Amino acid sequence: MTEEIFRNDAYTISCEASVVDVDEDGIELDRTVFYPMGGGQPGDTGVLRAVGSREVVIVDTIKSRVTGRQLHVPSDGAPALVVGDAVTAKIDWGRRHKLMRMHSTLHLLCALIDSKITGAQVGVEKSRIDFNLPDKPLDKDHISAELNRLIGENRPMSAQWITDEELASKPDLIRTMSVKPPTGVGRVRLVAIEGVDLQPCGGTHVSSTGEIGRIRVGKIENKGKHNRRINVHLDD
């Protein structure tokens, strides 16, 4: 399986790698800095640079539905790569960093709203999270103020790992109602915001909340009988 460098270091922008498989769905590398779509976070984009000035633009990164392996999806008409090619894999850092800031913001929202999550989507310009709140009113101004307070406190963020058995003994760590964190490999990754939040997550995050920058809360929408959707924007 691909060595996923981004799991331990979300700030690594590029790496040297080798092509281990190529099919109609994408390019598999032995190691990568590209995050594959999952957990509400889009897959990374960027380039694979090979010898001979070949540059393959990557428009998405996914997990194969058949094999579970990580695939880098090339743009139409991109130069062909073959098994054994050495490449430099480089992500679109500007896009990735915005996704990191947004994803970390959604974890702060989880800490502020005492409810289970029914859905979420991380985006570059707008992100949203849906909560199971059939009757509770939400104050947009209050949520915005509390989010920016936690951001301003510049709380450290970090990743840690626990065993499948430890997670099973601590069900309150799981915030989502429908999607459960993947188990079966022996351990599960947790993302911690010091003194604020701890939950399973495989996504990429900033190293401290201050790096998020100011956030603006957008619409708060009713999405069905029990769903309340909170939209957030980077206020750059």
Can you describe this structure?
- By secondary structure, this protein is an alpha+beta fold.
- Helices cover 16% and strands 38% of the residues.
- The chain contains three helices and 15 strands.
- The strands form four sheets. A six-stranded antiparallel β-sheet has the order 3-2-8-5-6-7, with no helix packed on it. It has a four-stranded antiparallel β-sheet with strand order 9-10-15-14, covered by helices on one side. Strands 11-12-13 form a three-stranded antiparallel β-sheet.
- The longest helix is centred in the middle third of the chain and has 20 residues, at 93-112.
- The protein is globular and about 60 Å long.
- The N and C termini lie far apart (38 Å).
- Which shape, going by the Cα principal axes? globular
- Helix content class: 10-25%
The average pLDDT is 93
Radius of gyration: 19 Å
Uncertain regions: pLDDT < 50 for 5+ in a row? none
- What's the total number of strands? 15
What is the chain-wise order of helices and strands?
EEEEEEEEHEEHEHEEEE
Percent strand equals 35-45%
State the name of the first-level CATH class of the largest domain: Alpha Beta
Strand order within the widest sheet?
A: 3-2-8-5-6-7
- Number of helical regions: 3
Q: Do you know the CATH architecture of the largest domain? A: 2-Layer Sandwich
Total domain count:
2
The computed structural class is: alpha+beta
CATH fold-level assignment of the largest domain: Threonyl-tRNA Synthetase, Chain A, domain 2
Task: Give a quick account of the main beta sheet: strands, pairing sense, barrel closure.
Answer: 6 strands, antiparallel
**CATH level-four homologous superfamily name of the largest domain:** Threonyl-trna Synthetase, Chain A, domain 2
